[in-house]
Amino acid sequence: MPKIQTVFKGKTNNTLLQLIRYSFVGGFAFLVDFGTLAFLTEYFHIHYLVSAGIAFILGLMINYYLSVKWVFNSRAMENRWLEFLLFSLIGLVGLG
């Protein structure tokens, strides 16, 4: 098992470390998504479906950003907008 510092610091091409990091990113994005949903619905009294849509988009953006900056060492595509679009489509399929 890798040292705890290597899990959280530096760039890596190690698939196991990337999986561990992606699990943390996914968990954090979930907390942001769920927290935003609850906050918008309970405190701002926004309809839960609208709140869910906003929360999903925010969680998706955080997931993408942290994945690019921290989890994966290389980019799959040069065009960031196209990469984000495909990432979003995969997220929407997962949501469905």
List keywords for this structure.
77% helix; mainly alpha
Notes on the structure:
It is a single chain. The protein has 4 helices and no strands. By secondary structure, it is mostly helical. It has one domain. The model has no long low-confidence stretch (mean pLDDT 88).
Could you provide a short overview of the structure?
This protein is mainly alpha-helical. It has helices spanning 4-8, 15-43, 48-71, 80-95. The radius of gyration is 15 Å and the shape is globular.
Q: How many domains is the backbone divided into?
A: 1
Order of helices and strands: HHHH
The CA-CA distance between the termini, in Å, is: 35 Å
Global mean pLDDT: 88
**Helical residues, percent:** over 70%
Poorly predicted tracts of residues: none
> How much beta, percentage-wise?
under 5%
Structural class call reads mainly alpha
Oligomer: single chain
Q: Number of DSSP helices?
A: 4
Largest sheet: none
Morphology call: globular
Can you lay out the helices and strands and say which pair or pack?
Layout: H1 4-8, H2 15-43, H3 48-71, H4 80-95
Helix pairs in contact: 2-3
